[in-house]
Amino acid sequence: MEFLVEFELSIPDDVEESEVKEREDAEAAAATTLGREGHLVRVWRSRAAQGEAKVLGLYRADNAQELHQLLVALPLYQWMSVEVTTLEQHPNDPAAS
């Protein structure tokens, strides 16, 4: 199954910069691993409004439960608001032909 996952990061003001850096580095390593395993297919940054940044990821997982387990394991997860959309193939998708 494929899922479109939208993340918005909100880091609490009282978190030390060193912890943020450590988690961001771990997040990058986790994304590399998820990509290698075939779970993270693509990732984009979206500018919704001035100063607001969202991340969109195309994920593959066997089911929603597996996706949830992948997401909660991310180092930045506790600072994320996450919205998941389950994707289904459309009959007019050019990639399907």
Task: Describe what is shown at a glance.
This protein has helices spanning 17-36, 64-72; strands at 2-9, 40-49, 52-60, 80-87.
Shape, principal axes of CA atoms: globular
CATH architecture of the domain at 1-14 and 52-88: 2-Layer Sandwich
- Compute the separation of the termini in Å: 19 Å
Strand order of the largest sheet: 2-3-1-4
CATH superfamily of the domain at 1-14 and 52-88: Dimeric alpha+beta barrel
Secondary-structure element pattern, one letter each: EHEEHE
**Number of DSSP helices?**
2
Q: At the first level of CATH, what is the class of the domain at 1-14 and 52-88?
A: Alpha Beta
Helix content: 25-40%
Characterise this structure.
30% of the residues lie in helices and 36% in strands. By secondary structure, it is an alpha+beta fold. It has a domain at 1-14 and 52-88: Dimeric alpha+beta barrel (Alpha-Beta Plaits). A four-stranded antiparallel beta sheet has the order 2-3-1-4, with helices on one face. The radius of gyration is 15 Å and the shape is globular. The chain starts with a strand and ends in a 10-residue tail after the last strand.
